[in-house]
Amino acid sequence: MSITSQAFTGQLPASFFEIPAAIHPSRPAENPVAILDLFQAEAARNNIVVFTDHVALRVVGIFPHEGGEAYFGFWETTDDLALNREAFARLAAETRRRGYARLLGPLNFNTFQAYRLRLGAAPSWGVFDREPGHPAYYPALLEQLGFTPSLTFESRLIRADTVPEAYGRKADLLAAFQQIPFDLIPLNPDTWQQHETELHALVDGIFSANPAYRRIPPAQFRRQYNAGFAAGLCPHTSVLFRDRPTGQLVALSFCQPNYAPLRLATTTAPDFARDYPRLPRKTLLAKTVGVHPDFRQQQLMSYLGAYGMMSFREFYQEIIFCLMRSDNFSRHFTDGLPAEVAHYALFGRALGG
Question: Residue 124: how many CA atoms within 13 Å on its side-chain side?
């Protein structure tokens, strides 16, 4: 069956959800209701076109109304180069027709959703929450289609036998942390609700300058990041820093246990109180860490790490620093420590006229 294209007008074909289920039988099924809600929300600021053969491939062209780069996302496929050549040729032609000169992906609308591909074999930990997990042939297919890594990322596992060395190296930082002139707000569902509006602004302020970042409206932020999300965070290592003179939130750290071994259903949100005791191995995921631009150069990124270290050994055996951009300052917190490293990339391709 050849590739067809269809502009999104409010519904997705049934095959859209059948294709990934066939390719990833061991992966939790997608949530059709949540994905359709996302498409309907994003249709207000993007033109969206679905390319598929309804059997073995799907890919979505995302064309922002404000111009700039076009994106492809929701890409799932069998290892079929000819089929992908046809699909991406049609996607490229549509991209050029709409006046865009570059394609970037996979990126499911914005960086608040799934994006990137893992490079190389799966790491020892398997796949943690929101880590790219896909067949090993995906990056090779994109490279054969003319795409190259545009942004690169990495995750680092610090094993239990390295933890004492890490604490030894950070002794001075842990001592200095006791005197920092910021209020510390542990994150849990109650404190999340108290600061929900400020949190949206803080996340936007921290990450808005990042490559490929697209701002999302508060309503979309609240659908994904809310008290239910906060219930899955580790309440001992997740924190907000607040500037005392101004009362402004200036830094955040979202951490959670690696719930992947529990194989929770897609429709079941993790809950620390319920799920942490059931974990066979206690691995902390340092997921989202950042400092507002106005408060950088004050060691706050290191102090966020120190905050997590204060209680880490009581609750966890090892830690994964997750999906750090390769050129991001946060990556340096673990420099020099033995680590297992996994690599990822977002791929781009310039389109000729």
Answer: 11
Per the DSSP assignment, residues forming a β-bridge with 168 are none
- The sign one gets for the Cα dihedral 23, 26, 32, 36 is negative
325 CB-near residues (< 8 Å, 6+ apart): 151, 152, 153, 210, 331
Place of tokens 């204060």: 310
Cβ(321)–Cβ(116) under 8 Å? no
Query: Of 134, 129, 164, which is closest to residue 285 (Cα–Cα)?
Result: 129
62-90 pLDDT per residue, tens = 999 999 999 999 999 999 999 999 999 99
Q: Beta strands 57-64 and 102-105: pairing type?
A: unpaired
Q: Which residues of 160-199 are buried (b: 16+ CB within 10 A; e: fewer)?
A: eebbeebeeebeeeeeebeeeebeebbbbbebbeebbeeb
pLDDT tens for 20-61 read 999 988 777 889 999 999 999 999 999 999 999 999 999 999
In angstroms, the CA 123 to CA 178 distance is 36
Q: How many Å from the N-terminal Cα to the C-terminal Cα in the chain?
A: 29
Q: Cα(77)–Cα(85) distance, rounded to whole angstroms?
A: 12
Q: What is the pTM of this model?
A: 0.94
Q: Where are the beta strands (DSSP E) in 36-109?
A: 46-52, 57-64, 70-77, 102-105
User: Quick check: 353 and 96 in contact, CB under 8 A?
Assistant: yes
Mind listing the pLDDT tens digit for each residue in 258-311?
Answer: 999 998 987 889 999 999 999 999 999 999 999 999 999 999 999 999 999 999
Please give the structure tokens belonging to residue 110: 């914005």
| Measured CA distances, 304 to 152, 180, 211, 239, 249 (Å) | 23, 11, 23, 8, 13
